Amino acid sequence: MEIQETINNIRAWGLEKGITGTNGSQKAQLAKLLEEVGELQHAIKTDNRDEKIDGVGDCTVVLILLSELMGLPFEQCVDTAYNVIKGRTGRMQSGVFIKD
User: pTM of the full predicted structure?
Assistant: First the structure.
């Protein structure tokens, strides 16, 4: 399945479940994202590949739905972020990229 189709399916699922649309809450989705990030952190700490895959996927789903609630196209957010970072220079320090 193409990623765009998957993103659209996530949007439809979120609307169907009442996560987005008039029933949704940006604050509730942000809380859900923090919960999912915590689960991803645990997966990384325990080095559990299956949980890492699940965690990255869950965080992405929540971000897509949060962007919907904010009226911001997820694809535009990702594209904007990439356009900001694509020309960055810097160095790695303790496993983290530090921009110049």
Answer: 0.92
